[in-house]
Amino acid sequence: MANPTVKCTVDQCTHYMPGDQCMAAKISVYNNEQAGYSSEDGDTQCKSFHQRKTVGDMVGAVHNSNIGGMITGAFMDGKQLTPEVECFVNHCAYWHQNNVCQASSIEVAGYNAANPQDTDCKTFKEK
Ligand code: SF4
Ligand code: SF4
């Protein structure tokens, strides 16, 4: 099953690249700890968020970077990249066994995020 394309507007994250691209090789989506389970998109979070403090932090995130996506030029062609998406929000209609997300694309957002709980999977849909 193909990974969903990921559109992300969380420009405070080390993995964020202009064009609303996520350059992480893999992202993990969780329920927010307080909520325990998600009944709305605000209860979800991208656990792979890492706050960018300096511009150099972008380079620091290279250990979890989608080098293949960069090399094949998907990024340069303006296509959305497809990091591997593992998701633990089993209350979502798109969630499938083995923590697979079956949506064809997802959108991650979180204005001025400082920690993962400030981010949401906007594509969440309650089962
Ligand atoms: S918040 Fe998540 S989806 Fe967005 S750039 Fe960071 S790791 Fe990628
Ligand atoms: S759409 Fe649903 S299953 Fe897919 S990453 Fe978001 S919360 Fe998880």
TrEMBL record:
<feature type="domain" description="DUF1540">
    <location>
        <begin position="85"/>
        <end position="124"/>
    </location>
</feature>
<dbReference type="InterPro" id="IPR011437">
    <property type="entry name" value="DUF1540"/>
</dbReference>
<dbReference type="Pfam" id="PF07561">
    <property type="entry name" value="DUF1540"/>
</dbReference>
<protein>
    <recommendedName>
        <fullName>DUF1540 domain-containing protein</fullName>
    </recommendedName>
</protein>
<feature type="domain" description="DUF1540">
    <location>
        <begin position="6"/>
        <end position="49"/>
    </location>
</feature>
